[in-house]
Amino acid sequence: MRAYIGRLLGIILAFGLLFVCVNVVGEKLTTKRLSERNVVVDRINAEIESEVSTAAFKLDVMDAWPNDSVINVEKIMDEVFYSREDEWKRLYGEEACPKDVRIILFDNRNNEEQVREEIEIGGEGSLIRGIYMLDRLVGVSEFTFAEFRQSKIILLMNIAIAVCMLLVLVYGIWICRKVIIPFNRLSDYPERLSKGGFTEKLPESKDRFFGKYIWGMNMLSDKLENDRRSIRRISDEHQNLVTVLVHGIKTPAANIKLLSEAIATGLYDPEGKVNEKDAELAGKIESNADEIERIVTEAVDAANATIFDYDPKKKPFYRDEIKEFIEEEYANRLKVGRIPFNVEYEGNPLIDSDKDGVCRILRQFMDNAIKYGDGTGITLKMDKTDEGHFITVINKGEPLPESELPFVFNSRWRGSNSTGVEGSGIGLYEARYIARHLGGDIRMSSGNGEIKITLFLPSKKG
Length: 462
Fold this sequence. Notes:
Layout: H1 2-59, H2 73-80, H3 85-92, E1 100-105, H4 111-118, E2 126-133, E3 136-144, H5 149-186, H6 188-194, H7 211-264, H8 276-304, E4 315-318, H9 319-337, E5 341-344, E6 350-353, H10 355-372, E7 378-384, E8 388-396, H11 427-437, E9 441-447, E10 450-458
Parallel strand pairs: 5-7
Antiparallel strand pairs: 1-3, 2-3, 4-6, 7-8, 8-10, 9-10
């Protein structure tokens, strides 16, 4: 997720740099064009000043204020600019040349300010130059230009870059919400499968971006669950076979030991004497019988053991993470079953334990609460004392008889309320096995129409 956000920000930053570069280049081009226009304006204005001075000299008004009625400014503009417009464009380029020129001569000195107000000096798209005669300002010339073509291009490029940045940002956010975040959630599913967590199938997303992936994961889940059931069935058959063989071997082994003892003591000797060779041989027979009993005992222990292994990896985590796990794992299942679910706890202390192991235990608690409860409600209650943390799952339903409670944690034992309910009888055995490896334990109580099962996790020492 961080890498994706970093790449998205990198793309937006690249657009930002492109935006800056376009504007910097545009500014330089504009400055260059403006400089070229100033050169052209100065050149044309110099010729206008020369023509005005020449006309004033011919009319002998050098000492007066030559106005438009005395000097024909239209003729000067035509001679200096309009008749030579192609020449100016050929020399300096079309964009550097003005598209229009206007000459205004003052009637007197007082008229100067009025004329300046009429002309927007230095206005957008125009340049103003003074007309001097004998170092005296007698008028102004206004040069009007077309808008820079590159200005329009730069504006369009800026708009295009801004739109692209916006589209990339919107598309990036959409991809994040519709693909990245949902896939991050889906990516946890294979890990849960590898840890034996079979809860519910992955729901199909509305956009169906992960249709084949979800279909494949659900197929894998079904395959693993079927394999697990097959292993449990084979394990049960193995246990039954071992049990039969063990009981079939125990009696002959015991009889062999009794016979060897009788031979060693001379019980079968006609004179009742102990034969040293017979006693030595009887000792070897008894030793072999003891070895047979040892092997039988190991076989019984192996047959009663569950087929799984657990290696705790403790790392502190917050209590809220348990609540988030249960809600994420069972929200859809409880919603479909219309089973009310409530969480009761205060505070968010750290729990120094193995989160995966704790979640495996609570998954077993929740599965049992859903399977054996009456569907009227399940409560997850979490408390903390000086001794440690207590996490309890309470479900309503037919309680187990008190006589059965001591056996609920035995391997492959199922209670009287399990009739017609699928199960193997090793879930709570495994849960208690994990709890004890974490230094805690599990307790179950039943009564008043409720079944409570509690996981205890000790506080961190020191």
